[in-house]
Design brief:
This protein is α/β, with parallel strands linked by helices and 283 residues long. The chain is built from twelve helices and six strands. Strands 3-2-1-5-4-6 form a six-stranded parallel beta sheet.
Length: 283
Amino acid sequence: MPVSAVILTRPRFPENIGMAARACANFGINRLILVAPELWLREKAEALATPQAKAVLDSIVVVEHLADALAPFSLAYGTTARTGGWRTGIVSPAGAAAEIAALGPNDGEVALVFGPEDTGLENSEIEQCTRLVSIPTMPDASSLNLAQAVLLMVYECFKAGLDQGVYPRRKLGGRKNSPPASLEEMERLFEVLKTTLIGIDFLPEENPEWFMLPLRRFFRRSGLRRHEVDLFMGICRRINRLAPGKDREEAGCLAAAAAACRVPSSAQGLGRTGDCPGPHQEE
């Protein structure tokens, strides 16, 4: 289940509240509760938030005591940088996130509880939490900014929720990928590449296949797709046009290979009309 709310106990700076609201909005939490804030100025908080976080700021609830904030929740994960002593059974952010994601709708609501910037949660406040979380850091630099701690915790909970299907996955933009290049298309590319590299004196005319072996291995490891093969074919054709001393036989060889790759020999440059098609042109 998703985290229901973030509770900031005695926060000192409204800017941190704004950044915490931003983190909540980024990762699907719309309830932010402030317990006895030292200073709460909406305009200062909003300056460090985002337009998406405005709804979180609008719905902020301010209470005087942590017990009042925790009243509607069944589970409260309190954060602490201090460990040892009686503060045992502490879990990592990832561990806490996995526990929360595994909860069902009948397990009640979950809150993440954070202390003030300078001291963190007091012992009396820790006692009111059902679980303790500590963010691992370098031993000699364990203090995190309040908003940073909120961001790390809600990110871990969101990531675990994605894996459990709690949150929808954001669709990535970009064109649809083309299919993987076939062995035949790769061999055609190697032949064109070899001819081009011989034409610019990069490969010797005697036994060029031997010198092509590293290039073959490189391209095989890359797992090229069809539009990427077409891209390299277009580059080779352009090099061949501009290279000095190119004879007609060489040009004809490249034109034939390009035609087999569905590229008209009259094309005038990569990305112009008639050049190797990308996936948006193929499909």
